[in-house]
Design a protein that fits this description.
CATH architecture of the largest domain: Distorted Sandwich
CATH topology of the largest domain: Acetylcholine Binding Protein, Chain: A
Structural class: alpha+beta
Number of helices: 5
Number of strands: 14
CATH class of the largest domain: Mainly Beta
Strand content: 25-35%
Distance between the termini: 41 Å
Mean pLDDT: 89
Helix content: 25-40%
Order of helices and strands: HEEEEEEEEEEEEEEHHHH
Number of domains: 2
Low-confidence stretches: 1-6, 8-16
Length: 332
């Protein structure tokens, strides 16, 4: 909100903005008493529009405000207090978002300069960012959504981010459904392509995204309970009813496999099993065993061994719900 108010004030002050005459050498680094230029970055995250699990991307709408001081651009006698200049004509941090996958910049590449030489660059950003999702605990997972920003022009000796850099986000107003968001402290580190490289300052604005598991639990558990009930009911039928027993047991196997495939199609191709995967896999094994026992029972009936067939069915009636509980425990 603070960033939006600042932008509104700038717009209202429009008539007082004048073009700045560029001093000679303005593209060189500003004098900073021998140290790196300190840059303050305020990142206003207006919205997280969507989180795409399969593509492993999240889409943002943001407003940024970048500022630093360049005494060479201070107002001279007779100049307006607030002036505008193209970024190409002065020194600038040259910042990029590392995990950008198609961000659009919706404001012109210009800076405003006040009477004391404070340079301010404002941007409106919209588009997708890549994120490495950890889906081991899906659908009870939480993710770290990071916006990683570095300079492609300057190294550690030339630029640093000030401690006043911050993330401003109204997480309760985000559009992404099914998530609970929490801003995290700003992280300062160094980005290097090689361990031996000089590196450049890296600033990360992060949020913790906790998935609302209720929807996924309902859409996963309820259909699976119905399939398991059908597989269980098979063993409560008289053993002599071999065709309907085997037919129902076969149908549950096909149903649970199709359900597991449809669930996996909505997730990225990862090399591990999620909580949901383990649950579905356990159910597939259980209904497979149920079908095998139904076939064994039918063979006992055909052999005239009705007592053995009834014993198999009775054992399965009691073992089946215990196996379901073990599957739930195994899935955690």
């Amino acid at each position: 909100m603070k960033l939006l108010l600042a932008a509104a004030c700038l717009w209202l002050a429009g008539p007082a903005v004048a073009e700045l005459a560029v001093p000679e050498g303005a593209q060189a680094a500003p004098p900073s008493q021998g140290g790196p230029v300190e840059v303050t970055l305020l990142f206003g995250l207006l919205d997280i529009v969507d989180i795409d699990d399969k593509a492993q991307r999240f889409e943002i709408d943001a407003y940024t405000e970048l500022s630093w001081q360049d005494p060479r651009l201070a107002a001279r006698a007779g100049e307006e207090a607030l002036r505008v200049i193209s970024l190409e004509d002065i020194w600038n941090p040259g910042l990029v978002i590392l995990n950008d996958r198609g961000i659009d910049r919706l404001l012109p590449e210009v800076a405003t300069v006040d009477a004391q030489g404070w340079v301010t660059v404002r941007h409106r950003l919209a588009g997708p960012l890549v994120v490495d999702l950890d889906l081991h605990e899906f659908p009870f997972d939480q993710q770290i959504l990071s916006i990683d920003i570095v300079s492609y022009l300057h190294g550690l000796a030339e630029l640093e981010y000030s401690s006043a850099s911050e993330l401003v986000a109204r997480v309760d107003e985000f559009s992404a459904e099914g998530w609970i968001f929490e801003p995290l402290p700003v992280r300062h580190s160094t980005f290097r392509l090689r361990e031996s490289g000089e590196g450049t300052p890296l600033i990360s604005f992060q949020l913790r995204a906790q998935r609302d598991a209720l929807f996924h639990v309902i859409t996963l558990v309820f259909p699976m309970i119905l399939i398991l009930l059908l597989a269980w009911v098979v063993h409560w039928l008289p053993p002599q009813l071999s065709p309907p027993r085997i037919g129902t047991a076969s149908a549950t196997v096909f149903s649970v496999i199709a359900f597991g495939v449809s669930l996996r199609l909505g997730l990225p191709q990862v090399g591990y099993l999620t909580v949901a995967d383990r649950f579905v896999l356990g159910c597939i094994i259980l209904v497979g065993v149920s079908l095998a026992v139904a076939v064994m029972t039918a063979r006992r009936v055909d052999a005239g061994d009705i007592d053995r067939a009834r014993l198999l069915a009775k054992i399965m009636c009691w073992v089946f719900p215990l196996a379901v509980l073990l599957i739930v425990q195994f899935s955690r």
